[in-house]
Design a protein that fits this description.
287 residues, mainly beta, SH3 type barrels, 2 domains, seven-stranded mixed β-sheet, 0% helix
Length: 287
């Protein structure tokens, strides 16, 4: 029988429940749920449809893509790289919406730590700077890491102004770090308004005051990416277009970089000469 850290899932209106038990070195397991149902592609191959649970996966990194079933209104698909761990069930929950910004995804998993007498917790959010509340007590802003977390059930709430709040009820286990990675759904009313009208010409007598230009990487005339203001004062550059991908660098608001590609709400830039990465389109725009 497949023995592992068991992660049971009950989907609720506000979150989900996660529990664990003993560990023995075994294959990895993967569970995927989506609303509405979606087709699952692993490393480019069609696996089936959600809901899905498999317990014979080889540990390592896999590429997961979810394409929602056809509906009247097209919905934004999701893809990301997930690390599967021996003896651990990794959980993915996706709520689709018309745009990626209005969609949400939660990824929960466990990771071994050296301290065998206590557990730990790591919460990562998109956007950065989300307020993390544990058992009703504010603990700080994401990304957040807490050591020596008591084993047992905890309510973990991720909240950010302008986004739909998410709450996970999860069990921490001694000897393991519980990793909660959440992309919050942006509230529809927070989308930028489109202003229509006739442009007003600048009077001939007006003068333009010179300003200091932000730093620019790239060749003049090419499409560029402008980094917008962020809650943290900086923006992560990731190796892949996913909040779970490895961080490659940090860039600052006002900086401009050469645009290379676009995928699922992410923009690919050359952040240094010869170095490429992805930034969230929520905090960057093409110019």
């Amino acid at each position: 029988m497949f023995k592992k850290i068991f992660l049971g899932l009950i989907v609720l209106s506000t979150g989900f429940f996660l529990s664990g038990c003993s560990l023995k070195k075994t294959p990895a397991a993967l569970q995927i749920n989506a609303t509405p149902a979606a087709s699952i592609f692993i490393d480019g191959k069609l696996l089936g449809k959600t809901p899905y649970q498999g317990s014979d996966w080889k540990a390592g990194e896999v590429s997961v893509k979810l394409i929602p079933d056809s509906v009247t209104t097209p919905l934004a698909s999701w893809e990301g790289k997930i690390k599967l761990t021996s003896g651990v069930l990794t959980l993915i929950v996706r709520d689709f919406a018309v745009t990626d910004n209005e969609s949400s995804v939660q990824i929960l998993t466990l990771e071994k730590i050296k301290d065998k007498k206590s557990g730990s917790l790591s919460v990562i959010s998109d956007p950065d700077g989300s307020l993390i509340t544990i058992d009703g007590e504010a603990k700080g802003f994401a990304p957040l890491s807490l050591d020596q977390v008591s084993a047992g059930d905890h309510d973990i709430t991720i909240a950010k102004e302008g986004y739909m709040e998410k709450t996970a009820r999860a069990k921490t286990i001694t000897g393991f770090k519980l990793i909660v990675n959440v992309k919050l759904a942006q509230k529809p009313e927070t989308r930028p308004s489109v202003i229509s009208g006739t442009p007003i010409p600048t009077p001939k007598t007006s003068k333009v005051t010179p300003t200091t230009s932000p730093s620019v990487t790239g060749v003049p005339g090419q499409t560029q990416v402008l980094i917008k203001e962020t809650p943290t004062g900086w923006l992560r550059v990731r190796m892949e277009p996913s909040t779970t991908a490895t961080e490659a660098a940090k860039v600052n608001p006002g900086e401009k970089f050469t645009f290379l590609d676009e995928q699922s709400g992410w923009l690919k830039i050359e952040y240094e000469s010869g170095k490429e990465g992805w930034v969230s389109g929520q905090y960057a725009t093409k110019i």
